[in-house]
């Protein structure tokens, strides 16, 4: 019996064409939205380790960090208010992404990108000008709304614009932009921390407006995707419009095969209630993967590294400047790994990257937990050599994530969902990411305080579970056109039972409907 991905995805149609400068420029502008998400992840962790920021907005945490010798090293940053600041963005993003699904489906991917970029710019102003915690929370909520729209629409846009044979590399550009955003944020935090007067955090928070403004202005000039043009505007004139756009995107006039598949996919689309449609049995594989892949993405512990890395490195004994530079080092490793993923994802496939990255993260989490258990006590510092050993292991961990679960979490759900549930499916993905990130953001500092080094063994256990899930239940999808993705479920050892049963159940209903229609015609005659 074939298990999981031992059955390769069937070869997709050869649509022809190439990667043109037009599609590259369009995807660079859209993909830059990932910088918004990455910048926020990096900035929020950096400013919450700055003494001037803590002293102004979170004085209790500042005094715990500086003065109370009886507080456990694992508990120095445990504060409900600090975690609310960090994680409030994700609840706002969760709600926003559900609204974004309807906007993306009805008005287009570009419209959602414009809305998200604009709201993000407004939120950045409140962050840079904050004089109290309430302004900081408003900043986080507006940023969350902006990210809810951009994270929902941009992966869809990239997947629909990309040629099938390069879809993995182009979609992975979104994760690369997230890494670049985190890296930029880490470098800015490292630089502004040295500003005399303690107002450097204002620069960190307000500069979030720069990538958001670039995305917003650039989105004005972006074309819509061929799928949306056909889906929402129907009629021969708009099919002709989609044909011309495809010819420009692919750099060839031989686009009829791809256009026919897009039109065929649109004819089977019901645009009324996509969230109800995705619950149908025939879409059970897509729903399960849209729920579990982003859930597993978050329980790797990656966002703990992203927005608590400086705090964590301070916890194990590094000074303020060294902790910020350590976060920069881990992000350089992640960014390099993202580039590797873009190069190999369409050659080796999604499953191999998932599995290799999973094993790498399991070993890394276990090693960090072991080092902390052996060398880091409740009170007193940690020897600098072991602190830097933890840093090296963290670099291995983020590299494993950055060429597997990081980019593939945005790629796989968008490419497996047919057009009628694609917007809803991506909203489910982003909503799960935001919800689980919120929970982890709310609980990690408390977990670190109570579970101590066991926190990393907990995350390692989750990585074991998710790696097994990929091995048994995730088929390979590389280079297969999105409009032909149904084939992978009908050849998969597990999912074919579900989709075949649904197809068998639908056929009698269709035959019955045909009989009723025929009977009605005869009666009328």
From TrEMBL:
The keyword Membrane applies. It is found in: Membrane. The chain crosses the membrane at residues 19-39, 81-101, 113-135, 203-223, 287-309, 321-341, 353-374, 386-406, 427-447, 453-474. GO terms for cellular component: membrane. It is a multi-pass membrane protein. It comes from the Eukaryota. The keyword Transmembrane helix applies. Keywords: Membrane, Sugar transport, Symport, Transmembrane, Transmembrane helix, Transport. Pfam families: Sugar_tr (PF00083). Residues 26-478 form the Major facilitator superfamily (MFS) profile domain. InterPro entries: MFS_dom, MFS_STP/MST-like_plant, MFS_sugar_transport-like, MFS_trans_sf, STP/PLT_plant, Sugar/inositol_transpt, Sugar_transporter_CS. PROSITE patterns: MFS (PS50850), SUGAR_TRANSPORT_1 (PS00216), SUGAR_TRANSPORT_2 (PS00217). One of its GO terms (molecular function) is monosaccharide transmembrane transporter activity. Residues 505-525 are annotated as: Disordered. Belongs to the major facilitator superfamily. Sugar transporter (TC 2.A.1.1) family. This is Hexose carrier protein HEX6. It comes from Zea mays (Maize). The gene is HEX6_3.
């Amino acid at each position: 019996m074939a298990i999981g991905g031992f059955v390769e995805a069937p070869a997709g149609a050869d649509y022809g064409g190439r990667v043109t400068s037009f599609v590259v420029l369009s995807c660079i502008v859209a993909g830059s939205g990932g910088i918004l998400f990455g910048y926020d992840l990096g900035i929020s962790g950096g400013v919450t380790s700055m003494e001037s920021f803590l002293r102004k907005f979170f004085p209790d945490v500042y005094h715990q960090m500086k003065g109370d010798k009886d507080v456990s090293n694992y508990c120095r940053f445990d504060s409900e208010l600090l975690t609310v600041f960090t994680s409030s963005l994700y609840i706002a993003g969760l709600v926003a992404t559900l609204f974004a699904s309807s906007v993306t489906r009805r008005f287009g991917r570009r419209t959602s990108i414009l809305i998200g970029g604009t709201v993000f710019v407004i939120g950045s102003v409140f962050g840079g000008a904050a004089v109290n915690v309430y302004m900081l929370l408003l900043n986080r909520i507006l940023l969350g709304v902006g990210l809810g729209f951009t994270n929902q629409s941009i992966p869809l846009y990239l997947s629909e614009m990309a040629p099938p044979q390069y879809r993995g590399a182009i979609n992975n550009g979104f994760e690369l932009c997230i890494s670049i955003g985190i890296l930029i944020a880490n470098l800015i935090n490292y630089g502004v921390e040295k500003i005399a007067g303690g107002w450097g955090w204002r620069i960190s928070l307000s500069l979030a407006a720069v990538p958001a403004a670039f995305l917003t202005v650039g989105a004005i000039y972006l074309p819509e995707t061929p799928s949306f043009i056909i889906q929402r505007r129907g009629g021969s004139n708009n099919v002709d419009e989609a044909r011309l756009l495809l010819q420009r995107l692919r750099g060839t006039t031989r686009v009829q095969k791809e256009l026919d598949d897009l039109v065929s996919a649109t004819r089977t689309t019901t645009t009324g209630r996509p969230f109800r449609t995705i619950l149908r049995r025939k879409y059970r594989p897509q729903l399960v993967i849209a729920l579990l892949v982003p859930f597993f993405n978050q329980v790797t512990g990656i966002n703990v590294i992203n927005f608590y890395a400086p705090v964590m490195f301070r916890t194990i004994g590094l000074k303020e400047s060294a902790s910020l530079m350590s976060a920069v080092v881990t992000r350089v490793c992640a960014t390099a790994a993202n580039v590797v993923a873009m190069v190999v994802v369409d050659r080796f496939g999604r499953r191999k990257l998932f599995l290799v990255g999973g094993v790498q993260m399991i070993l890394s989490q276990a090693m960090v937990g072991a080092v902390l258990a052996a060398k880091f006590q409740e009170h007193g510092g940690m020897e600098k050599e072991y602190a830097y050993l933890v840093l090296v292991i963290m670099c291995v961990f983020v590299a494993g994530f950055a060429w597997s679960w990081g980019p593939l979490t945005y790629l796989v759900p968008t490419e497996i969902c047919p057009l009628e549930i694609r917007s809803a499916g991506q909203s489910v993905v982003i909503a799960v990411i935001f919800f689980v990130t919120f929970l982890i953001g709310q609980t990690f500092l408390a977990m670190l305080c109570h579970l101590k080094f066991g926190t990393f063994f907990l995350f390692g256990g989750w990585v074991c579970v998710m790696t097994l899930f990929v091995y048994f239940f995730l088929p390979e999808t590389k280079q297969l056109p999105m409009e032909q993705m149904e084939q992978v479920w009908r050849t998969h050892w597990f999912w074919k039972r579900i989709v075949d049963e649904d197809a068998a159940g639908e056929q009698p209903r269709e035959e019955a409907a045909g009989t009723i229609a025929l009977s009605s015609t005869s009666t009328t005659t």
